[in-house]
Backbone:
C-alpha cells in the first residue's frame, strides 16, 4: 500500500499532468483518508469510553464544535499571525537570497560569515525572542525578526548551493563565449539555482507560521500564539487543538502556494 | 598562413602524485576552410587542448594564434561545441541557438531570424520553440551544433560532438554533417576517439600520444569530396584506417 501512495512523488510526468480521474484520486487519497477517519473514530470512542475530562483531552467532535463557534475570533487571530508571518518570511527571503548571492561571489566573505550563520542556527530561538522583545518593544518588529531569523537560514544555504551547483559544461560554454560574471549569473547560475532556492523556500515557509506563533506566545496582543497561551491558562484544551489545527492548515496553504509558484517558475524541472 | 596555429604548447597540472605533464610542446596548424581531426587515447589531454584554444585555460608555455594574432588565454575567439550538448533546459531551441549573440550583445532579433532559416537544414523544422527536454539525443546534438554555427566565428572546435550518441545516430549525424559541411565555409578542429569519424570528416588528422600528448602522426586524408558514408568500404579508407590503428596500438603498448 505504501508503494502506491508514494509512487506519484517519484514519477514526475513528462507532459503536463492530466486531470486526476476519480479512480486514481481514490487510489492516491483513499488510504490516508481512511486511516485518518479511523484514528478520529478511535479517538472519539476512547474519550467517551474512559470519560476523559475535556481539559485533558477533548474529543474530535468537541474540537469540531469549538472550531465552528470560535471561527470569527480565530479569523482575527489568524490574520494577526499572517501579518507577522508574511513580512518576516519576505524579509528572510530578500535578506537570505541577497546574502546567498554575496557569499557565493566572495570566498573570503563565505569563509568569514558561514560559520557564524551555522552558529546562529544553533542558538535556541526561545532564548533570543524575549531579548528581541526587550530590545524592540512589543510592536510588530521583534516578532517579524523572530520569523525572519528562523526562516532565512535554509534560504541562504540553498541559494549558495544552487548557485554553485550550476552545470559545469553549461558554465564552460558560456565562459568560452566570453560571458562575464553578471552574464553568467543572469543567463545561467540564477536560473540553475532556482530549484534549490525553492527547496529552501519550502523548508522556510513551513517554519514561518510556527515561528510567528512562537513569537506571539512570548509577547503580543493578538495572533494564534496569544490565543493558544490564553486557552492554556483557561484550561480550554479544545481551543488549543483548534489553534493547532488552524496553524497546520495555514502552513499547508502557504506551502501549497509556494509549490504552485515553483511549478510555474521552474517550469523546466522534471521535463528532462 | 594558417588560420589557427598552436605553437609549442605545454601544460602541466599538479596532482597528488606530483606535477603531471599533459601537453608537451604541442604544435598544430589548421588552414582556412580546413577540417582537421585530432585523435588520441582517452586521457591524452584533448580536452585540455581545447580549453586552451577556447581561452578557458592558459598554457604554461607556447601560444595560440589566429590569423597570426596571439590570442592565448582570450575567450570568445573560437566557437566551441562541448561533448555533452550543454543546452540550457529553460530556453527553447532558438533561444539556445542565439545564446552567443546574447552574450556578445549583438542583434538578437537578426540571429533569431537566421536560426529560424537554418532549422530545416539542421533537421529541426517545427522544433524552434520546443525546449531541449522534448528533443531526441541526435536532435539535441544538432541544436548544439546550430548554436555553434550561430556563434559566428570562422573557427569551430568540436569536442567529440557525437561521442555520447548510439552508433546508428552517430552515423546519421556524420552523414548529415558531411552534406552540410560544404556550404558552411568554416575552419574546424574536431577532437574524437573514433577513427572512422576522423577519416570520413577530416582533410587532415593528428594522432596524439598518451600523456604527455605529443604528435605521433600527421596524416593527410586524400579522399575526394563530397564524401558520403559509403566511403567506409573503400580500399583507400581501409588503408588509412590501418595506418592510424597501427600508430594508436603502438601507443597503447608503449
Residues:
Amino acid at each position: 500500500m505504501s508503494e502506491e501512495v508514494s509512487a506519484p512523488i517519484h514519477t514526475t510526468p513528462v507532459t503536463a499532468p492530466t486531470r486526476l480521474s476519480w479512480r486514481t484520486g481514490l487510489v492516491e487519497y483513499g488510504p490516508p483518508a481512511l486511516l485518518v477517519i479511523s484514528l478520529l473514530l478511535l479517538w472519539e470512542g476512547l474519550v467517551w469510553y474512559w470519560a476523559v475530562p475535556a481539559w485533558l483531552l477533548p474529543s474530535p467532535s468537541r474540537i469540531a464544535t469549538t472550531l465552528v463557534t470560535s471561527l470569527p475570533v480565530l479569523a482575527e487571530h489568524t490574520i494577526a499571525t499572517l501579518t507577522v508571518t508574511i513580512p518576516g518570511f519576505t524579509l528572510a527571503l530578500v535578506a537570505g537570497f541577497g546574502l546567498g548571492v554575496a557569499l557565493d561571489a566572495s570566498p573570503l566573505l563565505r569563509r568569514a560569515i558561514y560559520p557564524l550563520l551555522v552558529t546562529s542556527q544553533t542558538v535556541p530561538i526561545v532564548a533570543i525572542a524575549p531579548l528581541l522583545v526587550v530590545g524592540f518593544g512589543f510592536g510588530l518588529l521583534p516578532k517579524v525578526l523572530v520569523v525572519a531569523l528562523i526562516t532565512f537560514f535554509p534560504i541562504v544555504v540553498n541559494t549558495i548551493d544552487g548557485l554553485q551547483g550550476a552545470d559545469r559544461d553549461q558554465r564552460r560554454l558560456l565562459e568560452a563565449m566570453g560571458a562575464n560574471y553578471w552574464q553568467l549569473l543572469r543567463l545561467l547560475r540564477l536560473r540553475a539555482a532556482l530549484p534549490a532556492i525553492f527547496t529552501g523556500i519550502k523548508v522556510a515557509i513551513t517554519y514561518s507560521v510556527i515561528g510567528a506563533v512562537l513569537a506571539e506566545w512570548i509577547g503580543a496582543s493578538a495572533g494564534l500564539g496569544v490565543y493558544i497561551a490564553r486557552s492554556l491558562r483557561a484550561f480550554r484544551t479544545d481551543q488549543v487543538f483548534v489553534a493547532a489545527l488552524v496553524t497546520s492548515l495555514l502552513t499547508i496553504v502557504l506551502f501549497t502556494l509556494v509549490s504552485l509558484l515553483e511549478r510555474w517558475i521552474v517550469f523546466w524541472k522534471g521535463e528532462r | 598562413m594558417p588560420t589557427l596555429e598552436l605553437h609549442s604548447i605545454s601544460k602541466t597540472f599538479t596532482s597528488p602524485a606530483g606535477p603531471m605533464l599533459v601537453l608537451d610542446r604541442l604544435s598544430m596548424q589548421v588552414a582556412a576552410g580546413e577540417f582537421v581531426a585530432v585523435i588520441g587515447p582517452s586521457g591524452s589531454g584533448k580536452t585540455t587542448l581545447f580549453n586552451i584554444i577556447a581561452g578557458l585555460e592558459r598554457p604554461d608555455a607556447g601560444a595560440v594564434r589566429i590569423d597570426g594574432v596571439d590570442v592565448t588565454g582570450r575567450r570568445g575567439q573560437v566557437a566551441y561545441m562541448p561533448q555533452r550538448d550543454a543546452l540550457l533546459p529553460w530556453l527553447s531551441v532558438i533561444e539556445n541557438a542565439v545564446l552567443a549573440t546574447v552574450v556578445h550583445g549583438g542583434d538578437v532579433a537578426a540571429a533569431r531570424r537566421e536560426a529560424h532559416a537554418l532549422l530545416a537544414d539542421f533537421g529541426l523544422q517545427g522544433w524552434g520553440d520546443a525546449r531541449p527536454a522534448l528533443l531526441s539525443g541526435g536532435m539535441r546534438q544538432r541544436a548544439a551544433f546550430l548554436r555553434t554555427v550561430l556563434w559566428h566565428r570562422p573557427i569551430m572546435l568540436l569536442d567529440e560532438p557525437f561521442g555520447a550518441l548510439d552508433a546508428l545516430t552517430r552515423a546519421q549525424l556524420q552523414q548529415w554533417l558531411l552534406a552540410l559541411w560544404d556550404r558552411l565555409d568554416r575552419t574546424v578542429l574536431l577532437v574524437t576517439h573514433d577513427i572512422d569519424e576522423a577519416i570520413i570528416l577530416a582533410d587532415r588528422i593528428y594522432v596524439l600520444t598518451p600523456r604527455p600528448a605529443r604528435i605521433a602522426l600527421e596524416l593527410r586524408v586524400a579522399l575526394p569530396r563530397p564524401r558520403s558514408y559509403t566511403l567506409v568500404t573503400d580500399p583507400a579508407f581501409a588503408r588509412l584506417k590501418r595506418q592510424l590503428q597501427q600508430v594508436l596500438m603502438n601507443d597503447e603498448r608503449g
